[in-house]
């Protein structure tokens, strides 16, 4: 299975200081590319290994860090973040475990407050596994991502007809996994790589046959979605697009370019490179171990069976025991050239097989309609917020209002805003007195500084008179207690004056006010107060906050014209879905008329 992307530096983070503390273990680095599903398949394997061998514990991360926690981000405890998650997330006995922080000072002796060492983590897993077991919502989110395996493995494959050179067909018969390296070589090609594809010295187009190649769906999509025209000098030509085998010819041409690029990049090591590998002292110890374990099954040294087993052991040692970083590591191009030299094939036999090939798989999954995409997004959102579905909401505008209020009432930090999971949140309230008291505590007791332009208050509280030095201390305290109330009253008066001024402008008229049967005339008068000199004394009708909120949301949603935008993104993140604007098309038609 082909994987590209996970950087080896992730494992190198285990520095020399940690090596002495890390017990004996088996580790590895996997390279994965655009197919993230390959990574989750490894997670499934790791979980099954710890289930099969209960004494083992395993951890896994990638270039994003603890991606298992990222998958369950909606359900993580507040204390868990990327800075303190190292060496805390493990699979143990087939279950996901997270080593918690100590809740009290007494627990610091048992639970590490800083990053635990591997030995500390393993000790806690074995002695306090129940306390370290991840919460059920976290485990559910991770397990849902790997559900369906191993049956889902077959669903990730795609079998397609390809018109390929016979040499590539023979190589793929021996090493089917090389198709991944070839696809990546073509997918990531550059102008220098294409120079080798002008002559095609390794895989000329003279002897091509039809065959079936098994891809992963990701690899197949990478080949199909790239438009490419071969160089005329290469000898590769394509039939007209109307040809029934056009897709097979195009796939074969692209795959052949990938194999040719791999061979052009081979290390071109000397023929005795294998001998240099086998001269390693490790090989001698490896061979002695095989003999002690009766690997050769009593075969006489030098016999055909003995040599066959010996060659198998040499190949395994080269590919698995020697470090990939070493200069003698076998590249895909070297492996392809070696297979071409050691493999014989019959062109006529390939042609006979081409006459009765099984049908190719349907690739209609490559095309996703907008409705399918919307359905996928809704399913993903419902997985995060199970309580949100269209039948329950029925597009109730009150739900929209309550959800938006709950969102606004949430306290955001530098890490971002939190989305409420349900609309059953407390209403947003604003207590002017509490706000003024808090402001007074921040600015100090001298609340006369709240507004430097308030000359009336400065005259009322004139502290410059030196003749009042005999004022009672208790009176001063009472005066200081009265200051917040007076400041609050002053602030309310300012707000009222601002409302009166804005009511006569276009800004004030743009808001919807509350409807009152008895005060309808007053409401009308307050909106048209610009023509009445006594309008300032008229009591202003309160603004209908809910109606204005819904109106602005719907206008923003309509302006998106069916595309993604702030209104739909915020509402969908809270599990609220608005219907399509069926009136939008009709209104456009009226405007055009």
UniProtKB/TrEMBL annotation:
GO cellular component: nucleus
Stretches the record annotates as Disordered: 1-30, 446-469
Pfam families, A to Z: SGT1
Compositionally biased tracts (Basic and acidic residues): 7-19
InterPro entries: Ecd
Superkingdom of the organism of origin: Eukaryota
Biased composition (Acidic residues): 448-469
Protein name: Ecdysoneless cell cycle regulator
Organism encoding this protein: Dromaius novaehollandiae
